[in-house]
Amino acid sequence: MRELLLAANLRARGFLASVSDVSARGLLKSFSSVAIFGGVAVGVFLLSRGTTEYLLEEARIGPFLYHRFLSMLLYVFFITVNVGNMIVCYATLYRSDEVRFLMTLPIAHEKIFLLKFVDNFFYSSSTLTLLGMAWLFGYGSFYHMPWQFYLFTALAVLIPFMLIAGLAAVTTLMVLIRVAMRVGVRWLLALVVGAYAVAVYAYFRITNPVQMVQNVMQHYPNVNEYFGYLDAPFVRFLPNHWVSEFLYWSVLDDGVRAFPYLFMLLIALATLVLIAWLMARRLYYDSWVSAADALAGRTERWQGRGVRFLEFGREPWLPGRADVFVRRDVWMFLREPSQWLHLGMMIILLAVFVISVSSLEMKTGQPLLQAVTFIVVFLFNGFLVASITLRFVFPAISLEGDAFWAVRSAPVSLSRLYWGKFAASFGVVVFISELLAVLSIGLIRDNATLLMLSAVCSASIALALTSLNLGAGAAFAVYREKNPIRIASTQGASLTFLLSMVYLAFVVGVLVIPLHTYFERLLKGEPAQGTWILVPMAVILVGSLSVFALSTRIGLRAIQRDA
Amino acid sequence: MIELRRVVKKFGTFVAVDGIDLHIPRGQLYGFLGPNGAGKTTTIRMLTGLYRPTSGSCLVNGFDVQRDPLDAKRAIGYVPDQPYLYEKLTGREFLYFIGGLFRMPSPLVRAKIDEFVQVFELERFIDKRAEEYSQGMRQRIVLSAAFLHDPQVLIIDEPLVGLDPRSARLVKDTLKARTAGGLTVFMSTHLLEIVEELCDRIGIVKDGRLIYEEIRNGAAGFRGQLEARFLELTR
User: Fold this and answer.
1) Bond before A239 cis per omega within 30 degrees
2) Which helix (H) or strand (E) holds A229?
3) What are phi and psi for residue A92, nearest 5 degrees?
4) Which of B49, B93, B131 sits opposite A409 (nearest CB)?
5) Whole-model pTM?
6) Which of A397, A433, A558 is nearest to A507 (CA)?
7) What is the ipTM metric for this complex?
8) Contact: A562, B52; criterion CB under 8 Å
9) Measured in Å, how far apart are chain B's first and last C-alpha atoms?
10) pLDDT reading at A84 higher than 90
11) What does the alpha-carbon distance between residue A37 and residue A34 come to, in Å, rounded to a whole number?
12) A329, exposed or middle or buried, with CB in 10 Å at 0-12, 13-18, 19+?
């Protein structure tokens, strides 16, 4: 255990050194982080408090149904933490230089595993922990819970719940890497993506939220009762159910009925820690060596069948240096599984979203509800575009990597390189953004005016978010990091994502009143004036152009910095 | 061919290079020596445009590296101290990429690659991805990349790091032959025996200042014991 304490001590010193950076740049970075993370935490707090208040006091769905919704939300949260840990832990536990170094020392493999798991957990889950805490405060404040409730729930419920998700991810990955060497990585990855998709689909299919709401509402107005018999049996074995049940009984001040759920959660955590420890003893070194073998090319590799026209040395099909840059980027993308795998997952997510949206009915008699539905769909489009830009555009400059010297010392204009990256990214992002706009808004509302509004706003969003992510990606470039997923989860990336959210909030803020007025007029059969659409469009366009100008200026300056 | 005019580079309050003045004519192989942290790599990075000087200017082939970077870089072949490559590309793909950056036609790049496969013995690994390379393999690919566009100036930071004796001999012979053909070489190294064997002129840098220069006296080489003088000057 001495080695682990020593490593923890080193990390604590490193952290203290980074937070005690009193340079102007360091202070500015720290203040911006605190301001933006703080702002988002306050936003989540208000959202949590407002939603709880609305559902329980306005919509009067009752605490049971509310906690069933909460359970579903926690399930999504669990999967998010789980997937996040699995993706990041491959880099942390299998490809990190530190592990390679530690493996040369007389330290038990399971201790290295534990150390890196803790690293990985904090690295991949810190933002989610902040969001979870902010949500907990909003929820608890509605019920006027004492301060001990927050402290206890955070430490004994929320963190263990997230740890279960994280541990499940790393132990699964350990087994998968061993199996991958037998069945082939591509098959296995396809299997894993399929398994996650089935898990999410099956959960919502079995829990059947619509049926649950109908069953509970049959008892209206007696919706404050406990309807536990309506739960599907398998749900009772899931950690998200235990957390929501613990919260349900806690806010009703029934500690005796809350305790078993807490107990199950902690027992599950302890069991999983033990399993992970035992598995790490037996499998971690084996799986680490397997991963190292794969990296060293001792397993069969895809030889580029089907895209031979992209090979180097063939006739250029783009002018000037753009040709070699495109070929380089395409090959580096295709040969990095985390890149194409993530892209595949995002495409599946987009398809699921569009299919779900197409079943929405917007022709209700309530203008506010119509406006809200439109904005929610639009906001989700924006959120997807923000995720895609964060994941694929933000790392674009950092991925030049340590080999950037080759470009920087060649007769290549760095600003042209920057604009080339911008043009390529913007082309893809605006295509996705417009496709989403046409498919989602077009499917839910056959209305040319709305379609035009959403097409123009989507293009503006694509412009702003692409330039923001590319510019911030250059300003916060981490050339030493080879893994794009880790680049997209650095502090700079989190800040950029939060800025994207602030920008999307601005877009929604500009749209909400004009849309409400438009739907109201539509309902009354009055003609809508042209200004209602032109003014918000102009405001959003000016806002997006400002983001574009500022981000590009920052990005162009950053890429010219000493490297 | 290479000119440094009162070049200063500061990182915050730390002065890494402190007013270096230097002129290296065409066809000369200049050995840039100094202890660790003396400012050798910083100087090289300013010459290749990777760092911007705090004051002063660096000229290559008559072009200011900061004011006319593209013209200056067209003349340069650069071998960095750490031979980083794109891990997911093969050596051959990397060389094609570099050829593209210098706007060389594909057939010419192909011919050059074929030549370097022979000269630097790349055949065994050139079609493997860089993530599988050893230090020596990387170094040989980077050297090939530096020579690919027939540069007029070669800037080379620690040329023999990671090379086995056979590869080291290849590099030394290549440098000798190319310098005889008019190539100007600015070479930073710790290995004094290479300097004694190859260099026409040496400069010793300490704490960012050029404290000593000497020109080879024909076949007689440098005065006395170079190692003893280096140790004395950099103490």
Assistant:
1) no
2) none
3) -75, -45
4) B49
5) 0.75
6) A433
7) 0.84
8) yes
9) 32
10) no
11) 5
12) middle
